[in-house]
Amino acid sequence: MRSTSSIIRTRRTARTARTAGTARTVAAVAAGALALSLTACGGTSGDKKSGNDRSSGGGGAETATVTLPRLNGAKLEVAAVWTGGEQANFKKVLAEFEKRTGAKVTFVPAQDPIINFLGSKVAGGRPPDVALLPQPGAIRQAVEKKWAKPLGPGAREQLAKNYSRGWQDIGKVDGKQYGAYYKAANKSLIWYNAKVFENAGAAEPKTWKDLLTTAQQVYDSGVTPFSVGGADGWTLTDWFENVYLSQAGPEKYDQLAQHRIKWTDPSVGDALTTLARIWSKKDYLAGGPNGALQTEFPTSVTQTFTGGDQPKAGMVYEGDFVQVNIGETKAKVGTDAKVFPFPAVGDTAPVVSGGDAAVILKDSEAAQALVTFLASPDAATIQAKLGGYLSPNRNVPDSAYPNEVQRTIARALIDSGDDFRFDMSDQAPQAFGGTPGKGEWKALQDFLKNPGDVAGTQAKLEKDAAAAYGGGS
């Protein structure tokens, strides 16, 4: 399912731009950083009877492109792990669906891992109607457990019109469409405090060696180079995946993602050793390793862009969705907060990404209508205008994105062809790649604390992977 040539990933709370405010950065991102894909065509026109002739409330789509049924009296629950601004913005999308259909939609905050959260809901006889699942592996599990229901013709029609074949395929299980990817993310970005770089005389790095030089310049200027949200283990898997893809190459990446090679393979050791060139330098991490392990993702962002030119750190690694958290500070994206593509460790810079897919758990006309809406340009355009969001839907206009940084990311996403790889840990069984305190998340947290233990970390990763994948490679 993701054996082509880039990577994508959206994650949990933060899940949810890419290039900075200078022309040089924008060109770099547009030219090669985002190798995500999409092609599609236009939508259908709405009609007055269905309520689809209005301009969307809250800055939504100007013209409805999807016809929705009247659902007066219908009640729906939608579960996702989104919090903060991400959740608030999604609720505005749900509010537009309510206006158009007359249905009532309740957002249900879920906990990670969401598959376990859903399991408890199913066991109690109260599953949500629709869930947003952040991993292809979770979609497959929901299908195998007979929780997920196939998407109907309306949703499939929107997918065919608005999404590339690749984005459709990653929502399928055994050839049947179960997921509609509502949201995407580029996770090969490093954001930086522009004033810190200016004071340090630092330039945006192109290679890992350049990154180390830049980090030393920032350190010498009196600012800690990196903020790391190590309390959320998924951020550490993203660090590893970028290094591994660039250093080991796409073929090895595919093999490791499918556990066709072991985590004790020398290529894994090489990537961990490369990571240790930053993680082993205590003074390079805000709060040192122990502080990083107590820092949640949102804080890792905000502490990079508060404090003027003396923040707790000069740089923070993560995806386009970092903009949501930057928005909680006084910093402005493109001026105070800038971004560069994750530097090349090997011959080619990595592009890691992912997405959140809408999956139906209680089949009904209302649930099918909601997923149809989420697969349309109308829904995505509303959230795009609110910022901190990237859609794999080709028919969301560039103008929907609120700044040039996001417009550049969106164009690169759509124009980059139909090849991409999905985030490695999201492809893994949940027990290994998506559970707090276990598997890859825990092993990399332990490695951040003790980056000298490369062999021990590999052994732990392989033991947990073999158990999760059903034994061996």
SSE order and pairing:
Elements: H1 23-33, E1 75-80, H2 84-101, E2 104-109, H3 114-123, E3 130-133, H4 136-144, H5 153-162, H6 165-169, E4 172-173, E5 176-177, E6 179-186, E7 189-193, H7 194-200, H8 208-220, E8 226-227, H9 233-248, H10 250-257, H11 266-279, H12 288-293, H13 297-302, E9 315-317, H14 322-326, E10 337-341, E11 353-360, H15 365-374, H16 377-386, H17 404-415, H18 424-427, H19 430-433, H20 439-449, H21 454-469
Parallel strand pairs: 1-2, 1-3, 8-9
Antiparallel strand pairs: 3-11, 4-5, 6-11, 7-9, 7-10
Helix pairs in contact: 1-17, 2-16, 5-15, 7-8, 9-10, 9-11, 9-20, 20-21
Family: Belongs to the bacterial solute-binding protein 1 family.
Pfam families: SBP_bac_8
Organism: Streptomyces kebangsaanensis
Kindly report the name of the CATH homologous superfamily of the largest domain. Periplasmic binding protein-like II
Task: Look at the structure and give the mean pLDDT.
Answer: 86
How does the overall form come out from the CA principal axes?
Answer: globular
* Percent range for β-strand residues: 5-15%
CATH class of the largest domain: Alpha Beta
Q: What percent of residues adopt helix (DSSP H or I)? A: 40-55%
CATH topology title of the largest domain: D-Maltodextrin-Binding Protein, domain 2
Poorly predicted sequence stretches spanning 5 or more consecutive residues = 1-61
Secondary-structure-derived class: alpha/beta
* Strand order in the sheet with the most strands: 2-1-3-11-6
Q: What is the number of domains? A: 2
The separation of the N and C termini measures 18 Å
Q: What is the level-2 CATH architecture name of the largest domain? A: 3-Layer(aba) Sandwich
Report the C-alpha radius of gyration, rounded.
21 Å
Largest sheet: 5 strands, mixed
* Number of DSSP helical runs: 21
Region (Disordered): 43-64
Pfam family, one: SBP_bac_8
Keywords: Signal, Transport
Family: Belongs to the bacterial solute-binding protein 1 family.
